[in-house]
Amino acid sequence: MNARIQLQFFDKSDTPIPSGDVANIVTINGTANTAAPYEGSTVVPAGALQARFRFAAIHAGTDSNIAFGAPTVRIKGTGKLLVDGSVHADKLIVGTVHGGLMAATGIITKVGQIDNAVIRRAHIGLGEIDELRIKGNAFFVPYRFTAANVQIPTANHIANQRLLLDRSITGLGDGGFLVTVNAYMATTTHYDCFGGLVLTTTIDGVITGTASGLQRFGIRTTGGDTGFRIPIAMSASAFGGATVRFQLYGYNGHWTGDFERINAETGQYVNPRSSNPFNIEGITLSVSASRR
After folding, report:
1. Is the peptide bond before 231 cis (omega within 30 degrees of 0)?
2. What's 151's DSSP letter?
3. The pTM is what?
4. Residue 177 pLDDT class (50, 70, 90 cuts)
5. CA 15 to chain centre
């Protein structure tokens, strides 16, 4: 079944525009014994005041009768007419959308903006929040900082400590917080290794907790790969919008006899040993507050 739906335009004197031509609106290649809606569009020529439908059967592809019914003409907007329940438009402006089904893949799959929303439950894969307010301040977000692996040579003795990590946090609020450090001492080519990690906490320029932030460590072996964890824990209290600065230092005990036992009677080191270079790896500093 082949047919065409056409429009022929006329001016005010009933003269065809332009020169008797017709506009093909729809060319139909349909299935026999079926009914279906068809649509098309054309541009109205200048000077046209009226138009007439023309329905034409294409005999080469049609061997029976064709019935046309309910022709309708509308002014075309920027969208598309409703066809089989679908709406195609660049923008849709409505007061309220009613319906029980919405495709999950079609709900804000790209960039979206929501001015005010009430969400009962949500899963967020990755989010960036400029300002977070939690009712009653019953919430905390741990901070976690890391530093690159580093070797501590004998030149970095206790009087020449090496800075391993330096981070600051502003706005912990009123209340206490806990700082934990975890690192790993590793050596593959040296025997005796002694050293220390020193954690300092500075609140608005005032150093606090230095003594409790010192962790000495050491090992004596006859060679081979060695290594062990080095934990540090410190608690402190911040206030208001204070800036809290955390600095982690490492040193080698080679020059000071820092790990040697001193004879109480002679004041001399017992079996003094020298240290060798070692690595500090997997450096992690975590801060968790009781209140924000």
Report:
1. no
2. E
3. 0.51
4. confident
5. 66
- Do strands 2-10 and 193-203 pair parallel, antiparallel, or not at all (unpaired)? unpaired
Q: What is the largest CA-CA distance in the chain?
A: 131
99-107 contacts at long range (C-beta below 8 A, 24 or more positions apart): none
Element (H, E) at 262: strand 261-262
Query: Is the four-CA dihedral 119, 121, 124, 130 of positive or negative sign?
Result: positive
Give residue-wise pLDDT tens across range 63-81: 667 777 778 777 776 655 5
137-155 burial by CB neighbour count: b if 16+ within 10 A, else e?
Answer: eeebeebebebeebebebe
DSSP-assigned beta bridge partners for residue 55: 5
Contact (CB, 8 A) for 161 and 251:
yes
Alpha helices (runs of H) in the chain, residue ranges in sequence order:
none
pLDDT for the residue numbered 256: 46
d(CA 217, CA 133): 42
- Cα-Cα-Cα-Cα dihedral of 217, 200, 138, 117, to 10°? -110
Structure tokens at 120: 């009962």
The predicted pLDDT at position 48 comes to 86
Residue 263 in this model has a pLDDT that exceeds 70:
no
**Cα distances (angstroms) measured from residue 265 to each of 196, 262, 269:** 27, 9, 11
Kindly state the tokens that stand for 141: 């977000």
Compute the CA torsion angle 40, 41, 45, 51 (nearest 10 deg).
50
DSSP category for residue 45: P
- Cα distances from 60 to residues 1, 2, 4, 64, in angstroms, run 9, 8, 13, 11
Picking from 158, 168, 143, 153, the residue whose alpha carbon sits closest to that of residue 249 is: 158
Q: 74 Cβ partners below 8 Å, 6+ apart?
A: 81
CA–CA dist 2, 29 (Å, integer): 5
